[in-house]
From TrEMBL:
Record function comment: Catalyzes the oxidative decarboxylation of 6-phosphogluconate to ribulose 5-phosphate and CO(2), with concomitant reduction of NADP to NADPH.
PANTHER family tied to this protein: 6-PHOSPHOGLUCONATE DEHYDROGENASE
Lineage: Bacteria, Pseudomonadati, Pseudomonadota, Gammaproteobacteria, Alteromonadales
UniProt domain 6-phosphogluconate dehydrogenase C-terminal: residue ranges: 201-494
Catalytic activity: 6-phospho-D-gluconate + NADP(+) = D-ribulose 5-phosphate + CO2 + NADPH
Organism: Thalassomonas viridans
EC supergroup of this enzyme: oxidoreductase
Keyword annotations from UniProtKB, A to Z: Gluconate utilization, NADP, Oxidoreductase, Pentose shunt
Protein name: 6-phosphogluconate dehydrogenase, decarboxylating
Active-site residues, as the UniProt record annotates them: 205 (proton acceptor), 212 (proton donor)
Gene, per the UniProt record: gndA
Amino acid sequence: VLCDIGFIGLGVMGKNLVLNLADNGYKIAAFDLSSEKVNDVILQDQQENNSDTPRVHGCSSYTELLSQLKPPHLIVLSVPAGAPVDQVCENLIGAGIGADDIVIDTGNSLWMDTVAREKKYKNNFILFSSAVSGGEVGARFGPALMPSGSAYAWTRIKPIWEAISAKVDPETGKPLERTRPGEVVNTGDPCAAYIGPAGAGHYVKMVHNGIEYADMQIIGEAYHILRSGLGLSTDEIADIFEKWHQGPLDSYLMEITVEVLRQKSSDTGTSLVDLILDKAGQKGTGLWTAVSSLEVGCPAPTISQAVYARSISSFKDFRVQAAKQLTGPAAASFTPQEQADFIDRLHDAIYSAKICVYAQGFQLMKLAAKEHNWSLNFASIAKIWRAGCIIRAVFLQPITEAFQRNEDLENLLLDDFFAGQLNAHQGNWRKAVAEATLLGIPVGALSSALSYYDSMRAEVLPANLLQGQRDFFGAHTFERVDKPAGKKYHVQWSSPERQTVEIPPVQ
Ligand code: 6PG
């Protein structure tokens, strides 16, 4: 019997996606350069599958993989972003892949690479992309999927993607959990919706990751304040986060943070997080989001700050040295009441900063979509992020509703619900940032979000002075608030009269 889907790349994500596809009734031909990984997935399938018919057929070459598939072939790639994707594509061409065949790249590819690949391979096969979010558990039991590319290819992929994706209860907006091998969830809203043409899906996944970086950094800053500023134990902090997780901060990242904080080292028996080296890794998607925000000209300072925070963390030796030379404020002490109030304010600070992070991410997608002629549906994007992915959170439900109320919403800050939340919490947010700063605890994400909020709501910014400076040293001209828009002026700075003259428009 021929297989429904070919699968290349059986790392952690690949293996789990294969088993997820198999649970949903698809027969898979699986290939990896490592025959050990091929054997591993076959073995796991045998252990989990109660029937005598194997659901996964192991292949030892690209040619064998193609020969095992129903035509036109549907092949899913789960290989590292970058050169490996092209290597696999070239190997598939060498093995005789056809122009009607579809290859789905599920990695975190750079969106521009995806656009280029779709063109490059268009005479050989249809390159489709679908970023996957949710880590290994998501891949196994229901990820969020961000498919994009040929609309024809999507018609073939849609039923499969909707079957394997995470599902959300349409009434509550909460995930419908699936936790056991063999289990499938056929009801609920699938976290898989067509995003747009080639590149759009990877762009949206890139922004998801940028938001993920900022969400993690904000939680990290709260932990830092509670641990170093208030001197709480990791278990006490876990208790606070657990309580916060009951309210609007209910999210997967908050939930796993509690688990990480509670974890004891199996050898020392002490808090594991205290033993983990404070140098953060990164694979690039947060950086790409920050770079794109600069290129598009859409402010995303909290996402960029989260990338900087990871870079700063990597300067460990420098920091150890500088800690001996540079002083901060003296340690402060708090009464139990002061401490409790501070913790409440911190909650509001995190919530408000989180709203700004999503405002930045969604506006970035909106402006990028305009630039690249993608028609993105933001309610649908917020909807597919409600379950399966790393940034899943109850918070995505009001975002979904905000874009359902107004599909042209320019920025979440202007949505009545979120504006109301920010208005209610901004006072506590300011105090928390100020208090952390007085304690000498770096809060780059919390404070950059606050500056973003204050800048975006400011009718007047000091860019008038800046324009004056630019005109002084470079005759860059400026517009005036008391004259019609678009008219340009320049001061003859070097003449004794320093006359302001109108500059005629360039023909
Ligand atoms: C996801 C994650 C996943 C991964 C990233 C981030 O959505 O499932 O975003 O794609 O964790 O690669 O990794 P770094 O923190 O290493 O950049």
